C-alpha cells in the first residue's frame, strides 16, 4: 500500500499545476510578505521564540497563505491537517480535533489545522473550534480573502493573531516567473522554450498581484507555444491565452500603481471621462473590482467630504453592490459611482481637520476632557462633585455654549470648513456656534 501511495503522490506532483509544483520547501524561499517573514517580521520572531499561536492569514488570492501555513508546520515540527470550509462540516472538524488529541498523547506532537476560506464556515462550525484552539490542542491557521473582523466570530477572532498578506508586486511575480523558467519547472512541458524579459514582465502584469494566476497562465502559454512549434514564447501567444490584448493595459512594473493614481487624480480633477477611461483600463487589465471600489470609498471621504455627504453613501453602496453581483455587472455600479464622485463639489476639510488633531495629540500628548464630560461614575467625577455639571443640549433648545475641548485647547479650531457645496452651510452654522461658545451665550443659531 505504501508503495502505491508513494507512486500516486509522485504522479500527482507531476500533474499538479505549475504554481503547486513550485511551492517552496523553506520559508526563506517564499517571495513577498517580507513584513511578516523578514528577520524582524512578527511571524518570523514568533517562530524564533517558539511561541506560535493560532492565526488568521488575511489577503488576496495567490499571495502565499497556504504555502506559509505548510512551511510553518514544517519548521515547527507540527503535523499539518487541512480542511476546506467549502467541503467540510462540524463532523470533519471534530474528527481532526480527535486525531490531534491522540497525536499529542501518543507522540507528543502538536497539530496545525489549516482551514482555507474560513470566512465560509458557519457560526456553528467556528464554535466547534473554540475549545481546541483555546486549550492549544490545535494551532489554527485560517486563510481568508475577506475581512476577518466581519466574517470570523469574535470569540474565535480574540484567540487568533491576524496577519495581513499583501498582494505581490510585479517585481515579486517576475522573480517567481524567473524561477519557473530558469529552475527547470517547465522542462516537462517544453524543454527548450525560451521566455524573454518582456514576456516575463507581461506574465507578471497579467496576474495583477496573484502569483498563482500568473504561473498558471505561463504554463498554458508555454504549452500552446510548444504545440505551435515555437522555441520562444511571444506576446501574441500570451494574448491568445489571456484572451485580451496586452497593449490595452500592460504598462510595465508600475502599472497597478500608475493606473490607480491616474484614476484618483482624474476623480479629484472632476474629469469623469478620464476617470471612466482609467476604470475601463483597470477592469480590462484584470484589476480586482473591490480594490477599485475601496479606493472610491476612501476618495469620497478624503476628497469630497462634507461638500457632498451623499458621496460616501454612493461609494459604499457601489462597493456593496460589487460584492453582491460581481463582474461583469458590477462594473455598472462602479461607473455610476465614478461619474457621481467626479462631478461632486470637492473638499479636503474633514481630512485636514483630522490631520491637525492627530498632529496635536502626537506632539503634546492626550489632554483630559473637562470633568463635566466624564462618566459621572468615574473616580475623577466623584472627587469633584462641586464642579459645574454637564449641560444637556436637548434641554436648552439643542444648542449650548459649554466647551467640550480640554481646558488647555479651548478656542482651538481643527475643522475649517470650505465654501464648497453643502459644506458652505456647515461653515456658516459652525461660525455661529463658535461665537456662542466664545461668548458664553445660550442663543440658538438662526438659519442663514
How are the secondary structure elements laid out?
Layout: H1 2-15, H2 18-21, H3 34-37, H4 42-49, E1 55-58, H5 65-76, E2 79-84, H6 90-107, E3 111-116, H7 123-127, H8 130-135, E4 139-144, H9 148-151, H10 154-157, E5 161-164, H11 170-182, E6 194-195, H12 197-207, H13 211-227, E7 232-233, H14 235-242, H15 255-268, H16 272-284, H17 289-304, H18 310-325, H19 330-343, H20 349-364, H21 379-383, H22 423-439
Parallel strand pairs: 1-4, 1-5, 2-3, 3-4, 6-7
Helix pairs in contact: 11-12, 11-13, 12-13, 13-14, 15-16, 15-17, 16-19, 17-18, 17-19, 18-19
Question: How would you characterize this protein structure?
Answer:
Helix 15 (255-268) packs antiparallel against helix 16. It is built from 22 helices and 7 strands. The strands form 2 sheets. A 5-stranded parallel beta sheet has the order 2-3-4-1-5, sandwiched between helices. A two-stranded parallel sheet has the order 6-7. It has helices at 2-15, 18-21, 34-37, 42-49, 65-76, 90-107, 123-127, 130-135, 148-151, 154-157, 170-182, 197-207, 211-227, 235-242, 255-268, 272-284, 289-304, 310-325, 330-343, 349-364, 379-383, 423-439; strands spanning 55-58, 79-84, 111-116, 139-144, 161-164, 194-195, 232-233. With 448 residues, the chain is an alpha/beta fold. The longest helix has 18 residues, at 90-107. It has 4 domains: 32-164, Rossmann fold, CATH 3.40.50; 170-248, Helicase, Ruva Protein, domain 3, CATH 1.10.8; 255-343, Up-down Bundle (Zinc Finger, Delta Prime, domain 3), CATH 1.20.272; 349-439, DNA polymerase III clamp loader subunits, C-terminal domain (post-AAA+ oligomerization domain-like, Orthogonal Bundle). It is globular and about 85 Å long.
